[in-house]
Write a structure and sequence with these properties.
The chain is globular. It contains ten helices and nine strands. Helix 5 packs across helix 10 and helix 8 packs antiparallel against helix 10. The model has no long low-confidence stretch (mean pLDDT 94). It folds into two domains: 156 residues, JHP933, nucleotidyltransferase-like core domain (Nuclear Transport Factor 2, Chain: A, Roll), CATH 3.10.450.620; 132 residues, no CATH class. The strands form three sheets. A five-stranded mixed β-sheet has the order 2-3-7-5-4. Strands 1-6 form a two-stranded parallel sheet. The longest helix has 28 residues. By secondary structure, it is an alpha/beta fold.
Length: 288
Amino acid sequence: MPTKRVIHPDEQTRLRDDLQAATLAALIDSRRWQPGDLAFQGGNCLHMAHGSARYSEDLDFMIRGGLSLDGLADAILRRLRLPASVPRDLSVSVSPARTARNPHAFMVTLGGTGVIGSVKVKVELWKTDPMVMETLQIKVTAITSASGVQTFVPVITLEEILADKVYALGARDRLKPRDVFDLWWLQQRNPAPVLDAGALCSRLLIYPKGDPVPTGKAWLKSARPRLALLKLAATAGEVSEDLARWLPSSMAMDKAVAREMLNVSASQLDNGVTFIRDFAQTKGRAPV
């Protein structure tokens, strides 16, 4: 029986970057997107479009609600072109799309029958109210892959990403250290984006749990204990250990650095709690 070769970590990192760039290019080329149809967001947007050191396994987008996404995954597979440096014993496949709920999602996989290991990129498209999509700050940005291929991608601005990250930090059912890093990284920009109350409160419509005020009430109930968790001494060790998996080895990460990052997150989340509480009060039904 022929010996199967193993995809080692260094090769996996290179292949992941190649597959993400190729998938992004294929998505943009998959149809004639109109302005406001699509916007790149999330941690990989920070990494690929803005130069963040943290890599992510997913490609996350907001997409105009009501657009038909039938056949999108297949269209991406037909258009996906990998650089010549990718070994010929590897090929690409795309899983059936998950369509029953938001987000619309599918997995792009690079692997081979004679290879141990694979590289996966998850594509998630969050269906967003068209009127809300029109309010987002979106900028078409050139993203260049390691192989030199340039793709022009509609990207939400750093201010919008900041609002997304603060909302996610408060809304998730558990603390994700990647949110802590991303908020710290945004704070290091010059000039640093400033959290906008309107942008944050628009997330009550983008990620709704009913009407905006009940959604705000649910968010505040989650965000307040999260704020307390960010300030606990033990949290720094947990964040430091987790982030080491997602950052280059050249970037120092210890409890002291993690504490600095957590302090930034706590400050931003505290602002977010104030904004969403004030939003609810203007509606006359302040959550408690």
